[in-house]
Structures are given as C-alpha cells and as structure tokens.
Amino acid sequence: MIHFPQECTNGSGSLCHQQTILVTGGAGFIGSHTTLQLLGEGYKVVVIDSLDNSVEESVKRVADLAGENGHNLYFFRVDLRDKDALEVVFSMTKFDAVIHFAGLKAVAESVAKPLFYYRNNMIGTINLLEVMAEHGCKKLVFSSSATVYGQPSSVPCTEDLPLSTTNPYGRTKLFVEEIARDLHIADPEWKIILLRYFNPVGAHPSGLIGEDPRGVPNNLMPFLQQVAVGRRKELTVFGTDYPTKDGTGVRDYIHVMDLATGHIAAVRKLFTPKEIGCTAYNLGTGKGTTVLEIVAAFERASGKKIPLRYADRRPGDCSEIYASTEKAERELQWKAVYTIDDMCRDQWNWASKNPWGYRHPDLANGNRT
Ligand code: NAD
Ligand code: UFG
User: Which residues make Cβ contacts (< 8 Å) with residue 20, sequence separation at least 6?
Assistant: First the structure.
C-alpha cells in the first residue's frame, strides 16, 4: 500500500528532482532524527516505512520542525517485503543514495520469532538492494550495530575486530554486512557505508520527536523513561556482579543527534569521487558508562527517584563494550559531542512532554498486529 499525505507532496502530486535521499525506516527513532538533519542540509528526502514500529505522526513532526524545508519531505507507507511497492517508489523518482534504517530490532522477539526477523530484515534488504541496482542507485548507508562484535575480545572495539553475534537479530545485521561486502566485490560501482551504532539514546532538543517503542521496552533508556513518567513501577537492573566499577554493565551511549550528524557525514562521503568500497564505521563516543551511572544521571536530569530492582544478568549480555572512534574521526571527520547529561536532559524533555510517546495511552502498550 502506498500512502502519500498531501502535506508531503509538492502540490502537483509528483516528485521533482534534485539531490534526493531515500530513507527507509524514516518514521522510526533514528530515521526521524536523521531525516530532520538531512532536510536541514537541503536534501530532498523520501521516507518509506511500514509503520510496524512507528507512527506517521513522527514524520509530520519532522516536517513541522524542518520549517520551510519540510516541503522537501515525502512519505510513503511501504513495507520492504513488498517489492512491487518498492518498484513504484523507485519508478517515481531518481534516488542519489539510500539510508537503510528499516528493520525490526527487538533481540528477545527475534529469538522467539526467527523466521519473522529473517524475512523482514533479510528479504526486505535484498528486495531493496535489487531494486536499487535495477534503477542504477548504488550508494548505500546501512544501519548496522555494535551487536556484530558479539562478546568483544577487547575494548575499545575497532572495526577490524572479528565479528560474531549471539541472536537472530544480530545475525541479520551480520548477514547484511556480508551481503554488502559481496555485492561490492561483484560490482565495484557500489559505494556502501556500514554504520555500527553503539547505544543510541536522547531525543531532539525540541522534545517533539524521540524514541517510542511499541510494547514493553527492551532497552535501558526507554524503560527508565517509562518508570520516570509513572508508566512502570521500577527498573530492573540486570546483573550486579560484572567486573566493572560498580558491578553493572558498561555501554557506549550516544545521543541520537550525534548519530544523525554521523549519517550526514557518511552521505557526504558517498558523494566524494574517491573509491570507498564497502566499509564499516563505529558510531559511538568511545566512553563507557554503567547502568547505575545512567540511572544517577537520569535522576539528576528529571528530578525523579527511580525505584530499582536488582536481578541476575540478562542472557547474552556482555560485561563491557564501547567504541574506538578513531576511524570515524579520521575518515568521516565526525565526532560525537553530546555528554551523558545532555542525553538524559533531552530524553527527559521528550518523555515529560510526551509521556505516552506519539500515541494515545490506550494504544501505547499495544502489540504488533
Ligand atoms: P525503530 O524501530 O524506531 O525504526 C525502524 C523503523 O523501520 C520503524 O519505523 C519500523 O516501522 C520500520 N520497519 C521495520 N521493518 C520494516 C519493513 N519491512 N519495511 C519498512 N519499514 C520497516 O528503530 P531505530 O532505533 O530507529 O533503529 C533503526 C535501525 O538502526 C534499525 O535497523 C536497527 O536495527 C538499527 N540499530 C538500532 C539500535 C538501537 O539501539 N536503537 C542499535 C543498533 C542498530
Ligand atoms: N539493562 C538493565 N535493565 C533494563 C534494560 C537494560 O539493566 O531494563 C542493562 C543491560 O543489562 C545492559 C545495559 O542496560 O547492561 C544496556 O542494555 P540495552 O538493552 O539498552 O542495550 P544493549 O547494549 O544490551 O543492546 C542494544 C540493542 C542491541 C544492539 C546493541 C548495540 O538492544 O540491539 O545495543 O548497538 F545491538
């Protein structure tokens, strides 16, 4: 099905051509923030999203936040598993590059429903790559993940560490990375940047867009936020006996605004005449923070006391992971600038203004239909 809201057309109902980026999954958390920054940089952006884990309201808010540039934003409700619908989108306009965020990302759900995850994340991506190739669009930025480092043998993780992963979701990231490398070997015209995100958190400083997961959040920050606004009773801290400074797990949290600028840097690199092949970059801050440090920072930002329950380690979790940022700094000229306090401030700003996310309270806990 294709959805084409009036406010996202140029008035004539057709798309006019200038440098145009296709953003798959652009209604989601990272995609919406990146779309806003692309618009701010003067790109024309076509978002496609199945709205499986997002709502159209996020795209509307991005258009509003972009002001004048909001006219350069188009939205189609398309599922990447529907290749015919993708064909229609590609036949309407010529894309200069694609940023591919679309995918399902809940680790536990991927363990319970592996075929669903493989179909969505793998078949969806293969459809996209095939249609891109047919239409001569061979520039891609792909949302990979630090999950491809598995239980890292050393930290900070450099991009050349051996890759492995522990669950079906992680394998979809690793397999797509391998497909991308094979594609570039078979056809060196492809330029592909694999961005391995560490732990994206925070929200746009306006508090108008942010992360709004469907159902019970899997990740620390959205769960913490829902406790702070009273939607959940307490935060469970998974593991207190890790070999870290306070016994809780260490991660590299990165502000979603920094991630978005990382994508702009990657897109710019795709448009340089240099041969870039298929190459991976970490997007992280290079700094590790424990669960209890995040809780303390969030309490400072929100002025709320977060009730905690201590529990055993969560299966599959590593003790400590954070990025080496050298390659991205050197080759993308990009570096994260936001601190943990900035991340918690902006997360709380979003949470306090939108305690039920984009949705009505009755729908906010809904499962996927
Ligand atoms: P998100 O769920 O907010 O956004 C993903 C979007 O993709 C959603 O809007 C969803 O509706 C859409 N989508 C899913 N399947 C689709 C399909 N078949 N066709 C079209 N649209 C589809 O997630 P996010 O946090 O913004 O993550 C974006 C990407 O980054 C994902 O690929 C995710 O795996 C990856 N990533 C996220 C994290 C994280 O912790 N947020 C970490 C590493 C990597
Ligand atoms: N944690 C809790 N309680 C919770 C949720 C998380 O204590 O309710 C802890 C975890 O045990 C871990 C830390 O908070 O120590 C961060 O956990 P997240 O689930 O927020 O993030 P992960 O690093 O485990 O995984 C996330 C994504 C993966 C992705 C990875 C790297 O879920 O898909 O970041 O990008 F691969």
Answer: 43, 44, 45, 46, 93, 94, 95, 96
How confident is residue 359, by pLDDT bands cut at 50, 70 and 90? Answer: confident
Calpha distance 155→249 (Å, rounded): 14
State pTM to two decimals. Answer: 0.95
Cα–Cα distance for residue pair 144/171, rounded to 1 Å:
11
Residues annotated as part of the active site = 169
Q: Is 194 exposed, middle or buried (0-12, 13-18, 19+ CB in 10 A)?
A: buried
Q: Is the CB of 120 under 6 A from ligand 1?
A: yes
- Tens digit of each residue's pLDDT (9 = 90 or more) over 297-337: 999 999 999 999 999 999 989 999 999 999 999 999 999 99
CA 28 to chain centre: 7
User: Region 242-258: what's the mean pLDDT?
Assistant: 98
Q: Is the CB of 50 under 6 A from ligand 1?
A: yes
Pull the structure tokens for residue 315: 């299966």
Q: Report in angstroms the alpha-carbon separations of 357 from 27, 71, 189.
A: 13, 25, 41
CA distance 298 to 223: 12
Nearest CA to 262 among 170, 172, 196?
196
**Planar angle of CA 95, 100, 104, nearest 5 degrees:** 145
Residue having the nearest C-alpha atom to atom 34 of ligand 1? 105
- How far out from the chain centre does Cα 186 lie? 28
Residue 344's closest CA among 313, 315, 306?
A: 306
Atom of ligand 1 nearest to the CA of 51: 11
Q: What residue type is 9 in one-letter code? A: T
Query: Quick one: tokens of 109?
Result: 């759900």
Which tokens sit at 6? 């009036």
Residue 258 CA, distance from chain mean position: 12
In angstroms and rounded to an integer, the radius of gyration of the C-alpha atoms of the chain is: 20
Ligand number with the minimum distance to the CA of 104:
1
Distance CA 172, CA 182 (A): 15
In DSSP notation, 165-200 reads -SSHHHHHHHHHHHHHHHHHHH-TT-EEEEEEE-EE
% residues pLDDT > 70 (the chain) = 93
User: Confidence band (pLDDT; 50, 70, 90) for 290?
Assistant: very high
